[in-house]
Design a protein that fits this description.
The relative contact order is 0.08. 48% of the residues lie in helices and 13% in strands. The protein is α/β, with parallel strands linked by helices. InterPro entries: Mutator_transp_dom (IPR049012).
């Protein structure tokens, strides 16, 4: 708008996208291939096994899965993209991605619910009745593609409610891979789940120092956010100080829960200057 260029029409942009979409997809696949080859070279330089890769993965949806609970028999999301990023370098480059879609402009697709039952191209690649939230299925397809390039998944970092790790475990149990997968949880999602858990406890709302229910609910929400942030800060400081000794880090972090039990040993073991116990003292 600043250059006074008239915007193109919707149909014009759609026509252009249809003309170049295949080329863009092909280039993206070549770029992912280059990223995988780069990781193999880096691991060879380090003297590590180039056939094993540590990854982190997650799935995003065009709208929240839980937004349609109780409304329709199908999950509300109709498109998703499962992404796998390497956990070997600080850049965490994406090495594989898998888009899935139930959407197709052909009327017959929505009636029959099956892919490819109409003439011409079909933009949907999963059936209408398939579960869009089946992350184990999408992760397995991604891991199988990595296996075709000679990469096996070792350490898998996911959010706590993901089933992607079971995909790596099933491939190992079926003998398709030889590397035993190890599961790690993303601390960012752990903090988010911690906040939601505290926010949903009715007993916490009852002890908030306020007269009205709306005020107590507001205080409970602030308390849950503050607790999650402080515990996350403790974990970050523990990882910085004791990342070379996992057992020591686990022992130090145990004092976070012990301080809530009334055993105020945090003064000699605290990791963060503004410890969560200060909230109670």
């Amino acid at each position: 708008m600043a250059s006074n260029i008239p915007p193109p029409s919707v149909s014009g942009m759609q026509h252009t996208a249809n003309a170049i979409s295949e080329k863009v997809e092909e280039e993206n696949m070549r770029d992912l291939q280059r990223q995988r080859e780069k990781i193999e070279r880096i691991k060879k330089i380090r003297g590590e096994n180039p056939d094993v890769v540590n990854i982190q993965s997650d799935c995003v949806y065009n709208n929240a899965i839980y937004s349609g609970i109780g409304r329709t028999p199908f999950q509300p999301a109709t498109q998703c993209a499962y992404t796998v990023a390497e956990n070997e370098t600080y850049k965490h480059s994406i090495i594989n991605t898998l888009p899935k879609s139930k959407l197709c402009s052909k009327r017959k697709h929505t009636v029959s619910t099956n892919v490819g039952e109409h003439a011409g191209p079909c933009t949907a690649n999963i059936n209408m009745q398939d579960s869009i939230g089946n992350e184990e299925r999408w992760a397995r397809e991604c891991f199988e593609e990595l296996k075709e390039d000679g990469l096996e998944v070792n350490e898998v970092t996911t959010d706590p409610d993901s089933s992607a790790y079971r995909a790596a475990e099933s491939l190992f149990q079926e003998g398709l891979t030889t590397t035993t997968p190890i599961h790690f949880l993303d601390t960012r999602h752990v903090a988010s789940n911690h906040r939601k858990f505290v926010n949903n406890l009715s007993t916490v709302c009852d002890i908030m120092p306020a007269r009205l229910k709306v005020q107590r609910t507001r205080l409970q929400s602030l308390f849950a956010s503050d607790m999650a942030a402080r515990c996350q800060a403790e974990f970050v400081q523990a990882n910085i100080r004791y990342h070379k000794s996992p057992d020591v880090m686990k022992s130090k972090l145990s004092y976070v829960s012990r301080c809530h039990s009334g055993l105020l040993l945090w003064r000699s073991h605290r990791l963060f200057p503004i410890f969560i116990c200060l909230f109670y003292i």
